[in-house]
Specification:
single chain, about 180 residues, alpha/beta, Rossmann fold, six-stranded parallel sheet, 7 helices, about 35% helix, binds zinc ion, hydrolase, Isochorismatase-like_sf, hydrolase activity, Isochorismatase-like_dom, Isochorismatase family cysteine hydrolase
């Protein structure tokens, strides 16, 4: 997995926990073991792991579209469950990163491209939520920045009926590899 990075998108309490303010609920909770296992495999095989996380101020204009979520420093913005535990255990690993983002697309206005270029990454794998929102737009961002892309069927989820549609749409638009 040298030259490859796993991006874990938006797996916060607000997006995953049953009490989260904008939760994808059970479909999002079910992908957690797969994500932890995949992240572990990346770290053990010279890959990079980047936790990308929505980070909003309380007065963010984004909240005219969505209920308030992932406010910086809140419980809702914390990584969900087992992922938080895994992150805490591994955060001293130099190949594990945390990148806060204000946009759906984890490349927009962040250091993500610089980090990936610094490690000669040429392929980006996306897991997390939601398949048809932040995952898709982060795949679009990766593609626009010159990275090859992959999305993991068992590592991504959404609250809509469009999971499969957006996997196929990524394949169509960005030649994204769908890992099943
Ligand atoms: Zn948001």
């Amino acid at each position: 997995m040298k030259n490859e990075a796993l991006l874990i998108v938006d797996m916060s309490n607000d997006f995953v926990h049953e009490k989260g303010s904008l939760t994808a609920g059970e479909p999002a909770q079910k992908i957690v073991p797969y994500i932890v296992e995949t992240a572990q495999t990346f770290l053990e095989n010279e890959g990079l792991v980047v936790v990308t996380m929505d980070a909003h101020q309380e007065n963010d204009a984004h909240f005219e579209l969505w209920p308030p979520h992932n406010v910086v420093g809140s419980w809702g913005q914390k990584l969900y469950g087992e992922l938080e535990t895994w992150y805490e255990q591994n955060k001293s690993n130099k190949r594990l990163f945390y990148v806060p983002k204000e946009n759906y697309n984890a490349f927009h206005g962040t250091d993500l491209k610089m980090i990936l270029n610094g490690w000669n990454v040429d392929k980006v794998h996306v897991v997390g939520v939601c398949t048809d929102i932040c995952d898709f737009l982060t795949l679009a961002g990766a593609d626009a920045n010159g990275f090859k892309t992959a999305v993991h069927d068992r590592g991504s989820a959404t609250f809509t009926k469009h999971h499969e549609l957006f996997l196929e749409q990524a394949k169509l638009c960005f030649h994204t590899e769908i890992i099943r």
